[in-house]
Structure formats: C-alpha cells, structure tokens
Amino acid sequence: MTYVHVTNYPTTSCSLSCTILRSEMRGLLLLPLVVAFVCGDTLYFQPHENRNSGVACPDRKTFCPDGQTCCASDTGEYACCPLSSAVCCSDKIHCCPMGYTCNVTTAQCQKGELTQTWTPSQKASLISGNVMCPDGQHECKDGQTCCKLASGDWGCCPLPKAVCCSDGKHCCPENTKCEVSSGKCMRGDSVIMDWFEKTPALRAQNVVCPDGQSQCRTGQTCCKLSSGQYGCCPLPKAVCCSDGKHCCPENTKCEVASGKCMRGDSVIMDWFEKTPALRAQNVVCPDGQSQCRTGQTCCKLSSGQYGCCPLPKAVCCSDGKHCCPENTKCEVSSGKCMRGDSLIMDWFEKTPALRAQNVVCPDGQSQCKTGQTCCKLSSGQYGCCPLPKAVCCSDGKHCCPENTKCEVSSGKCMRGDSLIMDWFEKTPALRAQNVVCPDGQSQCRTGQTCCKLSSGQYGCCPLPKAVCCSDGKHCCPENTKCEVSSGKCLRGDSLIMDWFEKMPALRAQNVVCPDGQSQCKTGQTCCKLSSGQYGCCPLPKAVCCSDGKHCCPENTKCEVSSGKCLRGDSLIMDWFEKTPALRAQNVVCPDGQSQCRTGQTCCKLSSGQYGCCPLPKAVCCSDGKHCCPENTKCEVSSGKCLRGDSVIMDWFEKLPAIRSNGQGEASSVMCPDGASECEDGQTCCLLASGRYGCCPIQDAVCCSDHIHCCPQGTKCDIQQKKCIGRGVNLGTITMEMIEVKDNSSPQQPLQGFPLTALKENTVCPDGQSECKTGQTCCKLASGMYGCCPLPKAVCCSDMKHCCPENTKCEVSSGKCLRGDSVIMDWFEKTPALRAQNVVCPDGQSQCKTGQTCCKLSSGQYGCCPLPKAVCCSDGKHCCPENTKCEVSSGKCLRGDSVIMDWFEKTPALRAQNVVCPDGQSQCRTGQTCCKLSSGQYGCCPLPKAVCCSDGKHCCPENTKCEVSSGKCMRGDSLIMDWFEKTPALRAQNVVCPDGQSQCRTGQTCCKLSSGQYGCCPLPKAVCCSDGKHCCPENTKCEVSSGKCMRGDSVIMDWFEKMPALRAQNVVCPDGQSQCRTGQTCCKLSSGQYGCCPLPKAVCCSDGKHCCPENTKCEVSSGKCLRGDSVITDWFEKTPALRAQNVVCPDGQSQCKTGQTCCKLSSGQYGCCPLPKAVCCSDGKHCCPENTKCEVSSGKCLRGDGIALDWFEKTPAQSKIPAATIARKDNSVQCPDEKTTCPDKNTCCKNKDGNFGCCAYDNAVCCKSGTYCCPKGYICDTLPEICRMPEAKEAWKNTANLFIQRILRKKVAGQP
C-alpha cells in the first residue's frame, strides 16, 4: 500500500527550498516509502518508488537486485554475484554460473572440460531497518528520530533527523526549533507548522532460548553448543548442525564432513559459526538478595526491603513507595515529578523486587547460583559446576556438560567416542548462613533481625537492621521508631506504616555424640580421640581414622602411614585434624544435686526440692510452682506475669529438675559398650540382641539367658526361672525371675525386675502402644492405651484419668485421695505413642526398632538384630557397630581381634495394609474396613471395630453403636462418642512407560522380547537383554550363564519376568465410551454415556445422577434411599472417556491404542498387536520395535542374534465418518465467543490471530498458527512437525518425518 497525499504538490519544483522527509511502512521485504516536501508553510506528501525490490539475503538485512545471487563474503556480510542461481566460491569473493564448480587453484569456473573466468561479487544493499536508540534497548522505525520522553524512556518522532522539544513530548522537523509556549515549529521567526507528538519507542526484543536463560538477537536462531549451553546462529530459522558449532540457512542441511550447507545435492555455501548466546541479566540491589529487571531501578521500600521502579536510573522518592524519572525530583506533597519548577508527570509506584534464588545442594547447607549444578568435591563437601544439569566427574574436581561423559585420564568431555572439549573446574559452593542471636542459641534467617520476645527468648523480625519494639512482640524498619500506643512505625513525626509481628527464632541444633555429652556443629562428624573422649571432624559423614586424631571424607579410607585419604588406590588429599567437641552443659542448682537444661532457671518447688523454669534468668514465683520472665514480677492472685502495672502473659509452670551424682554431673551408669547408659541405681546387662539393657536394681546379677536379672547375693536358676539364695538386705528369698515382655503378645503388667533398654519408651500391654519413660500405660474408654504423666500411676475407672502411686481415684469428685485426705486434682491421660518400625531405604521393607536394615544378596532387604550394625558383603550376615566383617572366617573383628561370630539377617517385614473386601480399597494396619453409605469402603481408626449401620461411624470392639444418640455402648453403659470413618486408600500399581501396562508396588517394569512389558519381582531391578529375565539393583546380567553378577562374582540365579497387568477400563454398551475401573456406565440425557463414580451403581432416570448399589433414586428430593430411609445425597455423573484409536496413514483405517498400522499385501491397512512395531515386507507379519524381520525363517532378529517368532497382523477397522462425530449439539465454543468447532476438535489461533479448528481432541496448538499436533506431542519447527517428547532431534528422525505426514494437521477456518 502507499500513503495518500494530503494536498496536490506544486507542479513547479520546490525541491531546493523544501525539506525532504521520509516515513515508512514495514513489510516483509518491500518497504513502501513516502516523501514529504515542506514548501513555504505547507507540508506535501507523495508516494515514493519502492527501493528494496530484489532478492533478500539470508541475514534479512541485505538484498541483491533481481537476477543476482547472495553470497557470503570474507567480511562476514553478504555480497551480490551478478548471476542468477550462482555457485558461491569458497574464497568468499567470487562466484560461478549454475552447474559449474569453483576451481580456487586456477581461479576459474569448471564444468567438465568447459572453463570460464569466475565473477567477482559486489557489496549487497542494506534493507531499510529500525533506528536503535542510544540506550541500546529501544528502536524507532526507519525515517523516525529517537527522542527522550519526560519519563526518561525513549519515544519516536515521525520525522528523520528531527529536533526533540524540551517538553519531553513533542518534536519538530530538521532545521527548525520548538516554540514550547505556542506548541509550534519555527524557522527563524516564521511558524511553519504545529509540532509533532512522539510515540513510545519499540522495545528491542531478543529471542529467548529453550533453557529460559540464554537469548539471541532478533533474526538469529538459538542452537545448542557442544558444551550443552546455547549459542546464536546469525540466520533466522536456521538449521543447527550436529557438530555443536555451526549452522546453515533454512531449508538446507549441514554436510558436516565438508563443512558445507547443502540444498538437495548442491553445495550452496560454507556453513556459519555460532556465537555464544546472551545471558538474561537482572539488576542486583544493594542488599545482594533482591533483583529488578533490566531497565528498572532498585529503590528501598518503607519496610526497609527493596522494590523496583519501572524506569532506568530513576530517582527514589522519600516516601518509600514512589519514584520519578532521571534528572527530576519527587514532590511528595503533591505526588508529582518535577523538572526545575515545572510539573512534568504523576510519579510511578514501585513493585516488590525479585528475590535471588540459589540452587540448594543435597546436604541442605550448600548452594550454587541459578544455572549451575551441585557436585560433590573430593573433600565430601559440595562445589558448583558452571553448567546446568552437568555431569559430575569422579575425580571430585571437574564436570562436563549434560549428555556427555568425563574421560578422567585425558581430562576431556566426550560425547559418544568423540572428544568435544576440555572439562570444567568446579568452584566451592556457597554456605547458607543464619543470623545468630545474642543468646548464642537462637537463629534468624538472613535479612531478618533478632528481637527479644516478652518471654525473654528471641524471635525474628522479618526486616534487616530492624528496630525492636518495647512491647516484646513487634518491630519497625531501620531508622524508624515504634509508637506502641497506636501500633505504628514513625519516621520523624510522620506515620509510615503498621508495625510488623515477630516470629519465633530457630534453635541452633548441634550433632550429639554417642556419649550423650559431647556435641559437634551441624555438618561435622563426631570421632573418638585417642583420650577416649569425642572430637569433631570438620566434614559431614566423615571416616574417623584409627590414630584417634585425624579423619577423611565420606567414601574414602585413612592411610595412616602416609597421613593421606585414599579413594580406591588413588591418593585424593591430606587428611583433616579433629577439634575437641563441645560439652553439653547443664545449669547446676544451689543444692549441688539438681540440674536444669541450658537456658532454663533453677527454682525451688513447694516440696523444698528444685524444679526448672523453661526461661533464662527467670523470676521464681512464691507459690513454689510457677515462674515469670526476667524483669517481670509474679501476680500470684491472678496467675499472671506483670511488667510495671501491665499484664504481659500467663505465668509458666516449672518442670522437675535432673538429679546429679554429686560431682555436678547428671547421674547415670555408663555401660561397657561406651554408648548405653542406665539410670543411677540400675545395672547394665547384655541382652541377646547384643545391645545393653537396664536391670532396675543396683549391683544385680545378670542371668546367662540375657533376658533376666536377680538381686545381688542370689543366683539365677534358668530352668525354674527363679532367683535363689540370700539377697543383700533381703534375707533368704526365692522369687520369680521376670521375662521381658514380647511386644507382639499382649499381656498384663508383671511385677519383678525386667530388663529395659536405655531411654526406651514403656511398651503397653497391647504391644503396639508406647508411653514415655516415667509415664504409665492406662486403658482409655476406646479400648486403646493412653499415657498417665506419672510413674507407677493408678489408672482410674472412668478410663480417662489417673492418680499418683499409693493413692486412689475418687471418681465422683475428680480427686486423688491418700487415705481420707484429698491431695490433688487427678491427671488426664494423653493418647499413647504407636510403636514405630525402622523403614528401609526401599520404602517398602521394615525392621523392628533396634534392628538395622541390610541388603540381602537378592537385592531385597533383611534385618540385622543389632542397632547401627555393619552389613557384611556376603549379603547374608552382619556385625555390631564399630567392628568389621571377616567374610573368610565368618567372624566380627574389632581392630585385629576376633570379638564374636557374626549374626544372620532375617527377612524384613513388608509394610502391609489391610485389604478391604472389594479388593481395591486398603486401610492402615490397626484400622478396620467399614462400608460407607456410598457403597465404597472407609477406614475406622480402631482395630476389630464395630461398623455402625449409618454408614458413617464406628465403635470399639465389644461395644455396640447407639445410632439415635451417636454413642458407643458397653452393656447398658454409655462409654464414649462414636468415631468417624475416613476414606480408604486405593491400591496403587507402578505404571510402565507404555502407559498401558502396570506392575505391583515393589516390582520393576521390563520390556519382554515381544516388545510388550513384563514385571520383574524386584524393586529398581536391572532388565536383562534377553527380554525374559532380570537381576537385582547394582548387579549385571550374565546372559550366557543365566546368572546375576556383582563385580566378578556370581551372586545368584536370575529372576524370570511375568506379564504385566493391563490397565482396563469398563467399556460402555455403545462400544465407544469407557469408564474407569470401579465406576458404572450410565446414559446421560444427551443419549451418550457418562460415568457414575461407584461400582454397580443404580442409574437415575433424570439422566444426570446415580446412587449406590441396592439403593433407589428419589428424583424429587435428589436423594438415594435404602428402603424408606435416606442414606445419602445422590452422585453426579461425569462424561465417559472416548476410546481413542490410532488412525492409519490412509486416514480411513484405525488400529487400537498400543497397536501399529501396517500395510497388508492387499494394499489396505492391518494392525500389528505391538506398539511402534516393524512392518515386515511379506505384507502379513510384523516384529517388535528395534528388531528386523527375517522373512525367510519367519523370525524377528535383534542384532545379537536373539530371535523370536513374528506376529500376524489383523485387518484394521474403518474410520467413523466425520459427520457422525461432528455433532452440532456438542460443538466446541472458542474463547472469542464467535467461532465454533465440531465436537472432538480444538480451537487454535491461526497465523492471522483469529481462531480456527484443529481436527484433534485436546490438541497442541503450534505457535506458527498454521499447524496443530495431537495431545502428548510437541510442535517442532525444524522442520515443522509433531514429535514425541523422547525424540530429541526430530529433524533427523526419519520416523518423525513419517509421523509428520500422519499427525500434522492444518488449522482450518470456522466450518
């Protein structure tokens, strides 16, 4: 198109006295121009001839005249060969006619025996482009002028070489001046025209590469470099060459061997070299944590944190909320931006800044920058590789790009067998640091401030360098003050914001060493020193060296003779020296016997003994029971803590103190293993498990059965289970020896002297529940166990309360009596703990508490009957902690000494749920399956529970449900409210990669030789290449012998796979619709099928709802009835699934999902019963993926000669005509609310920005607006095809080129 002139320009030439102006309309290549003449006071326009007709060069910046050829020159730009379809010579200076080749040696063009002189190329012309503004970010159209706007951004004046007016809004033609007061353009003293208004400039847009971090300039193409990062090809829509370094123009291919770009069989030019891509950079604010976008300015907000002003080099206003353009000032009173005394605009509001995010390494302490990869260093700590998703090299020092491997011997990164580059060196990772509060115990996050709470402990204000308010609860930003009466933060006399609330501080956690007294910092390892005390190695999970002084990183060993750390036979570094461990210190109370924890205060109790207040430097209240924070006083009458005359909080209750042994240490008996302790007055005895237990009498005799003990001066009669003889201070006694209770068999509490493990919980008689040491197990009304917070307590008959030893419960008054005297209120029981097993690393297997999970030779887990045991390499035995396995002798060694025979592992428990009668639902162990009113199963949180008839509640065993009152009854007595059921779990299978096959939890999907999936009965198994067997994790298959190998040793016979389960849907009567397993097909009011979310459901006549089995629909009320009773609201149906077939290339035939279309000998299509199958040339058979058809023998071969019988194809189905599925009543409404598409179509925007229809359901709309792809596929632009996600190089993949012809569809207009 051309511009229409405003008035007819004069016939007489006025070109000498007129200013010539230019404007532009941009097109793809042809750029129509307008010439403007200023003659006198009048502006004239006339169309200008097109100057840019010709051949556009690949850079889209230059062009050659018609009939010439663009050739790359030695300057990197394009030149024009004065021949049509010419051959560009490799010297980048000359060219030859089409059909000739360049002979650089003779400087001639050759065609067989014909020769002629080659032709030099001439410089190409520039296509009119945009004008880049001085900030390098904005652009104006060709023929316009960049002018600064009042905002500080750039705008465009619609004239070339224009004069930019000082008002920041207008402009005038060249050689004129702006008269701001009148809004005119002047030449000398004459007004020649009104001035022009500027328009905002364009933002220079880069192309963002797929990694989301790298960018290329407009008109370039992102290509992956051999490093795995992105580079830029200087051509649009270029072809990226596989060498990771070069590229070729669109619609050509790379000839890597010759370094050329080919179109068909013709060389068209040398290839281009890529340049590194730009990295998207943010502006980092002064706090080092916050970031603003490029072209924005960091400004402090009133909170003290940073926000972003949407202008470059902006002025930050003092109100902490707004900003103004560069070279202006903020007028806070009016909310305006001023230049000098002139108001230029309203101010801008800041937005919150971005927070810089690092990648947190697996240790949870180390961090790497975004776009880097955490890699372990040889020290065991983490370092940062400067590449995303990098490969960490085994030398602990270097790394390589994604999809390469480290060649440690040469220090190179390899892709396949090709060397691609030197490797990269890692840098030390950042360490996440907290702010440590003055008490040395509490911590706040970086960027927060420690403030004392009213309790005397520390909390965290969410601002840096904050002011802590005197109310002990709030804080304000730096350089403000707290106005407590109004709850505001003030700057000077001005209110700036509401104050902030503090949050509790983190508590600094140390690693407690096995002696229970020593501690090391987080990220260190406790190691015994030669003194027998503990020291700290400055590495996590370190190896403690036998010299008692040094340590080495995880997975290395100490070479004591040389003072080095070895990995295998290689020296990796000098060893590290340990430092003395911290000692956990208690506060010793004035009696010299009692102790409180660090951070607590000793206070006398009313008994005269000491208790502990859970606050530092606390005030002890005179009631002998409570305490208050430092600098407060106790108001005993009200039970409050006062500061001045103000109540600040309820008081605190004291806790019993720890008793010490008289030397200022907590009293306990250390057992011979150096790790276990018993309470003072008890005796350590070795248990059968190899651990120590505690006999509850002093200086006891430990019986040889490792189960019982007897008093001093008696002896154990194992056969009679008696203690016989004269006990010290007991006289002549014969008493029962007491067996330690077996947790699996419930029994009543027994009197005597059982052995109890150190600091274990008390196991209740049901064998499942536990109470803390010093508590008593008491039955609750529910039949389960609860915990009374007293030792040897009396359990009250109301099944809810308890009283101290030697008292009795007075249920009517809720008191505890000693004789006839009330001594105190009774205590309430709390629910007991549930005994927990140790879960093994596979997440499926479990061992008992105090056992250790060890891998068996099968790859599954077994249980060693020792805590923290050493698992022996034979996959069958184990040894105690701090020993090693001597496999040849079957012994456990400490140093060079045999200490005992090794232990045999037992198979681990499998975590089992209770399977409900429907075979699909599951409840947790200790729960009961009960049917819900919906007909599905729920879980009652009690074992062997009674399921109530209301379909919603349940009661304990041996009770009955009283539905009218919602209670559980035992006999005629009400015992408790009933319990509500929760939905049951659904059994989950492992879904195989084909999306159709499934294996049981704890199994592994493996491909069978048929190409279908089978199930290996092991988790994370290795699938053997014979397509029939599998081996445990971390072994390999020895196919020739049928064994599983670990290293060079045979460890077992291999396992046979079994066929996988097939995910089955319920097919509805129409043969097209499907519902999920456990649902019911019901007709909808439309006549199509929907799915009721219940099995064997009743379909309601309204065509929309359904009810559970054995109920009926009451349509008038919308309820489901059983008999005359309403049991539940009805359920709504959901649309059924549509069975999807694979459409064959003829567009008419179809095969089932998971089959492959193959041509029959008739020329029609048949279906091979395998996915991605190979179609055999006999037109009748097919073979699995990655095999070939051996037609002569009727076999399928896989490279190494493993063969199987081939499969026979079946005839394909005919495709349903489009008219039957494009139902108007089910048409799809597009978002523009104007366009409709047929049923099972997808609305996609076309290249004009309007909506069109893609003939796939739930399709992927391609960005070009020209094509669309089926669900699950990706639109690929090189070339434009639909590809599967796993096909990484679609343009090379011939299978995908075939898919292109099948799957790619045009986006059609509205039907």
UniProtKB/TrEMBL annotation:
InterPro entries: Granulin, Granulin_fam, Granulin_sf. Its main location: secreted. The keyword Disulfide bond applies. SUPFAM superfamilies: Granulin repeat. The keyword Lipid metabolism does not apply. GO terms for cellular component: extracellular region. PROSITE patterns: GRANULINS. Residues 89-102, 165-178, 241-254, 317-330, 393-406, 469-482, 545-558, 621-634, 703-716, 796-809, 872-885, 948-961, 1024-1037, 1100-1113, 1176-1189 form the Granulins domain. Keywords: Disulfide bond, Secreted. It is found in: Secreted. Belongs to the granulin family. PANTHER family: GRANULIN, PROGRANULIN. This is Kielin/chordin-like protein isoform X7.
